[in-house]
Automatic annotation (TrEMBL):
Gene3D superfamilies the record matches: CBS-domain (3.10.580.10)
Source superkingdom: Bacteria
Species for this entry: Novosphingobium malaysiense
Cofactor(s) listed in the protein's UniProt record: Zn(2+)
Catalytic residues (UniProt): E61
Intracellular or extracellular location(s): Cell membrane
Family: Belongs to the peptidase M50B family.
Transmembrane segments: 16-36, 42-60, 98-119, 139-159, 205-227
Gene Ontology terms for molecular function: metal ion binding; metallopeptidase activity
Keywords, comma-separated and alphabetical: CBS domain, Cell membrane, Hydrolase, Membrane, Metal-binding, Metalloprotease, Protease, Repeat, Transmembrane, Transmembrane helix, Zinc
Any single GO CC term annotated in Swiss-Prot or TrEMBL for this entry: plasma membrane
Lineage of origin: Bacteria, Pseudomonadati, Pseudomonadota, Alphaproteobacteria, Sphingomonadales
Annotated protein name in UniProt: Zinc metalloprotease
């Protein structure tokens, strides 16, 4: 999500609206292009149009957000990127009907905006009016046209776009959630390749970026489903890292630096004097602290917050936290003391091991001989 490069512009019903710094690069780019092609009035027009389009995108995202709340799913934040908006739902419901409603809600909001603008305009805009965009009526015509295009574009079955999630919901009701996701992800990656080729031939860099995002996001969704399959029924205690070096919040950063050199770890849970987890310190955090406050600085001043769960928490509830960008999840015993922690990397290792065991050569069957031996 690139949270470090985004900032909040407000909160609506508990959901933070954040704008990524690259969004302003988009505004600068279209503004300069407009200025060069038509002077300051053209630059102002295109910048205003882009801002209005992204306001419509925010409304689209809140269609998803409010629909998700009907199914008990909260959305901590929505981030505006040059390629559109991304809502970070706490989880995607496994129930196909819930996913269908949440997925289709956004495009329906976009369609409603387009219809509303056409009613304000009082007619269907002409191609020339859309191209020229002269005056307020021209701006409304362009905005209506763009929303219609966005509505249709979002229905492309390119998982994890809205149309792809609608597809996954349908497939899941037939094939089950895991297999439905695999099929939808494969279709999504094919669509991404086609969109990327179309973007290259039309010199549309935004379309190429969207295609890249879809391709890797579909692969990521596939990986999440694979993780959920191998951790199904497991608790945090069964998947956590339990052999690790602990740091104490009162220790100096120099102690953390020494542990970084001598221990096979790149992240360290930080505990208080009672053994309860109080934070988390990564390799990057240690290096920044050494270069900034200095080696004598108490770890408590430079550590990061960490989300903590019980040792009996289901992995089904932990995987979405890590998939959303959380660096690590602490695991606490019944007495509150730190038992271990879980990272995305250690789950990936668990997935690699599971795949290796699944594809290993059965006992009693020799490996295939290599030609020439």
């Amino acid at each position: 999500m690139g949270r470090r490069w985004s900032f909040s512009v407000g909160t609506v019903k508990g959901t933070a609206v954040r704008i990524h710094a690259t969004f302003f690069l988009l505004l600068l780019w279209v503004g300069v292009s407009g200025w060069l092609s038509g002077g300051p009035s053209a630059a102002l027009h295109i910048v205003v149009l882009i801002c209005l389009v992204f306001f419509c995108v925010v409304l689209h995202e809140f269609g998803h957000i409010f629909a998700a709340r009907k199914f008990g799913v909260n959305t901590p934040e929505v981030v505006l990127l040059p390629i559109g908006g991304v809502s970070r739902l706490e989880r995607i419901p496994d129930e196909p009907r819930a996913e269908f409603v949440i997925a289709i809600a956004g495009p329906l909001v976009t369609l409603a905006i387009a219809i509303g603008l056409l009613l304000v305009l009082g007619r269907m805009p002409s191609p020339n009016e859309i191209e020229q965009g002269a005056g307020v009526q021209g701006l409304v015509a362009q905005l209506a046209y763009i929303n219609l295009v966005l509505f249709l574009f979002n229905l492309i079955p390119a998982f994890p776009m809205d149309g792809g999630r609608v597809l996954r919901a349908g497939l899941a009701s037939w094939l089950g959630h895991s297999q439905g996701t695999r099929v939808a992800a494969g279709i999504g990656q094919v669509c991404a390749v086609l969109l990327g080729v179309a973007g290259l031939f039309s010199n549309n860099i935004i379309l190429v970026l969207i295609a890249v995002f879809i391709y890797f996001a579909a692969g990521s969704e596939n990986g999440i489903v694979a993780l959920r399959d191998i951790t199904a029924g497991k608790t945090a205690r069964e998947s956590m890292i339990d052999n690790f070096v602990r740091l104490h919040s009162t220790d100096p950063v120099a102690t953390a630096a020494s542990a970084l050199v001598h221990a096979d770890q790149r992240e360290f849970p930080v505990v208080d004097d009672q053994g309860r987890m109080s934070g988390f310190l990564t390799r990057d955090g240690i290096i920044r602290a050494l270069a900034g406050p200095g080696p004598d600085t108490p770890i408590a001043r430079v550590m990061e917050d960490i989300q903590e769960v019980s040792q009996w928490t289901r992995m089904d509830d932990i995987i979405p936290l890590l998939a959303s960008g959380t660096k690590a999840v602490g695991v606490a015993g019944d007495d509150g003391r730190c038992l271990g922690y879980i990272t995305w990397e250690n789950l990936m290792e668990e997935l690699l091991i599971a795949r290796a065991l699944k594809h290993r050569t059965p006992a009693g069957f020799p490996a295939r001989a290599q030609p020439g031996h």
